[in-house]
Amino acid sequence: MLRRLLLQASTSRRLAAAHFTPPHSPPLLRCPFSSSSSSPQQPPSTTISIDRSDLCNPAEHSHEPCSDSDLVKHLKGIIKFRGGPISVAEYMEEVLTNPKAGFYMNRDVFGAGGDFITSPEVSQMFGEMVGVWAMSLWEQMGQPGKINLVELGPGRGTLMADLLRGVSKFKSFTDSLHVHMVECSPALQKLQQQALKCVDEESEADTADKRAVSTLANAPVSWHATLDKVPSGLPSIIIAHEFYDALPVHQFQRASRGWCEKMVDVSEDSKFRFVLSSQPTPATLYLAKRCKWAGMEEIKKLDHVEVCPASMELTQSIADRIASDGGGALVIDYGQNGVVSDSLQAIRKHKFVDILDDPGSADLSAYVDFASIRHSAEEASGDVSVHGPITQSQFLGSLGINFRVEALLQNCTEEQFESLRSGYWQLVGEGEAPFWEGPDEKVPIGMGTRYLVMAIVNKKQGVPVPFQ
Question: What is the pTM (predicted TM-score) of this model?
Answer without folding.
Answer: 0.82
